[in-house]
Amino acid sequence: MGSPLPTTAKHLEPLHVPSRSHKAWRSILLAIAGLLAVYCLANGTSFHFRTRWTTARYPDLYEAGIEELQQGMQRGLFTAEDLVRAYIARIDEVNHKGAELHAVQEISPSAIKHAKQSDAERARGFVRGPMHGIPVLLKDNLATRYEDGMNTTAGSYALLGSVVPRDATVTAKLREAGAIFLGKTAQCEWSCARGELPGSWSGRGGIVYNPYYPKGDPCGSSSGSGVAAAIGLAAITIGTETDGSITCPANNNNLAAIKPSLGLTSRKGVIPIMEHQDTVGPLTRNLRDAAIVLSVIAGRDVADNYTLAQPEVVPDYLAELDRKSLQGVRIGVPRKVFMNATITKWHTSVEPTFNAALAKLEELGATIIDPADFVNAYEMLDFFRTQRVIGPTDMKYNLETYFSELAHVPTGVRTVEDLVAFNNAHRELERPPTFESQYYLEGLSGRERNSTYYEQLELVHRMVGVEGMDRTMRDHKLDAMVLPAMGFTTTVPARLGYPIITVPMGFHPEDTEPVANKWGVVDPAPGLPMGLSFLGKAFTEVQLLNFAYAYEQATQFRLKRKAYAAAIPKTQLKDIVGCKWWWIC
User: Fold this and answer.
1) pLDDT of amino acid 31
2) pLDDT at 431 over 60
3) What is the DSSP string of 40-53?
4) Of 314, 323, 263, 297, which Cα lies nearest the Cα of 503?
5) Are the CB atoms for 118 and 103 separated by under 8 Å?
6) Which of 13, 496, 506, 538 has the fewest CB atoms inside 10 Å of its own CB, making it the most exposed?
């Protein structure tokens, strides 16, 4: 199966470096071009170079987005193969070398082959769409077909070498759209539903670290996807969320991300945690990219009946973006519980940063209803702290269904009891010192979908939805809610299957005192990012994307701070392409 890291650059063809003669000719010809331009201007003559001669530049892969990369491939400045080689080299620099971020679990051994096929299609005039030739990293819980040579393990050795029957539906949609799968990102094992462990640790991947502060917390469970997107280890990454697993990594890694409504993106072929909450979405460096990806991966799937509730036609989310969309809208701030620092445990700098964001939203035309509190906020909080029925029951049933559909499992794990036994028998891999905890997995055995389970589901619908968020939005005539992306923010949308759009909001100040947990993972810390989340009712992604886009475009916090130097890969396209086009070397 897939190549464990480090793979890569050493196995690839050597890079072509411009020679002195190339550089000399470039200088001579550019001088001639300059003289021609002066002559033409002096004589009123029109003289046009081909666009790529005069204005072309290789995009900076730290920030490069889908549209910019497509333009470069369309103009012949570089190929999908060039992109794949560049991203693989960037991964090699910082994954297990340099800053040792551990973001990428494995590289696809077929990525270059697929990139060459993509380039051949483009050469024949066949371009599948905006994702054609775009390199993507997938979270390690999204199935990829056996022929690709990658594992799908949710970070656990228990599924290493297992054979999935087919691509996950989201994987298949991206593949059909022309995306190239670079590899799998590391994640919190079993999407953090195992025990008391760091939010970015897995047996296979170790601890993933944040690129904005050494040993910083990237948050999870889509930790590797967040880190990889943050520093340009792929054009875009895909994550999943049960409760906070896209939103929190977006918050901690200075990203734009979408946690879609339950049922907007199919979960078929995704290693499950809770069918009532799981969803798949993009982590990107800007919302335009997120919108492009969402239009590809959204849609109905008969293999996931939750998707049949969505509108029949998938919107063109990119075309719908409007940076003036905040004018005249009503946005609520549910401060009770959600903004209580003793509950959220966030740093003192979060609230003033958030208040500045509210002021910016008002400046952009929104009416801020502050507070717009849930009347039953503390009742909900007590329920969330004591409810231990739905999550474990769903996980047992959903995991064992997934296990049963695998074509082959070398470890023999087919039940949650098998999983616990495997971990106990392989402590050096799955339960090393300080990473022993698996109380959540141990509590799955014997769970049943009984009357208590269904009563709890009904209680969630009534208390959290009808009497909670739905009532608050109706009573205050809200178009959306807004909160800092960390803390308690994700829990209500998770329980209800409602969407969250997150964009960068700022950074912890330089005088922030770093705090490390018992595993040495640091949060808060100077310069760690903070995000702003827009919340709404089911299938309101177009509206929420617009609100978040207006704020993103007006603030551009993503561009105001980069990762620390050792965490930034140096490889760029010019290092791969060399002097293929000498005039832009």
Assistant:
1) 53
2) yes
3) HHHHT------HHH
4) 323
5) no
6) 13
Q: Are residues 190 and 237 in contact, defined by beta-carbon separation less than 8 angstroms? A: no
Residues 2-44: pLDDT tens digits?
544 433 333 333 333 344 444 454 555 445 545 544 444 444 4
Amino acid identity for residue 326 in this structure: L
Q: Identify the residue whose tokens are 């550019």.
A: 30
Q: Which residue ranges form the domains of the chain, and what is each CATH number?
A: 7-98+572-585 (no CATH), 100-389+451-563 (3.90.1300.10)
For residue 47, pLDDT beyond 90 = no
Question: Is a pLDDT exceeding 60 seen at residue 541?
Answer: yes
Token pair belonging to 318:
């990119």
Instruction: Outline where DSSP puts E strands in 226-352.
Output: 236-241, 256-259, 279-284, 330-332
Residue of 87, 80, 82 lying closest to 61 (CA atoms): 87
Amino acid at 499: P
Asked whether the beta carbons of 484 and 496 are under 8 A apart, the reply is no
If we measure between CA atoms, which residue out of 368, 337, 559, 314 comes closest to residue 480?
A: 368
Model confidence over 477-530: pLDDT tens digits?
999 999 999 999 999 999 999 999 999 999 999 999 999 999 999 999 999 999
pLDDT of residue 175: 99
Exposed e or buried b per residue across 75-106, where buried means at least 16 C-beta atoms within 10 angstroms of its C-beta: eebbbbbbbbbbbbbbbbbbbbeebbbbbbbb
Catalytic residues: 139, 221, 245
What pLDDT, on a 0 to 100 scale, did the predictor assign at position 17?
A: 37
The 3-state DSSP class for residue 511 equals coil
Residue 71, C-beta contacts closer than 8 angstroms, at least 6 positions apart: none
Quote the CA–CA distance of 72 and 59 in Å, as a whole number: 8
AA letter at 368:
I
Other residues' Cβ atoms within 10 Å of the Cβ of residue 471: 14
- Work out the pLDDT band at 578, boundaries 50, 70, 90: confident
Checking if the pLDDT of 45 tops 80, the result is no
Between helix 541-555 and helix 287-297 the angle, nearest 10°, is 160
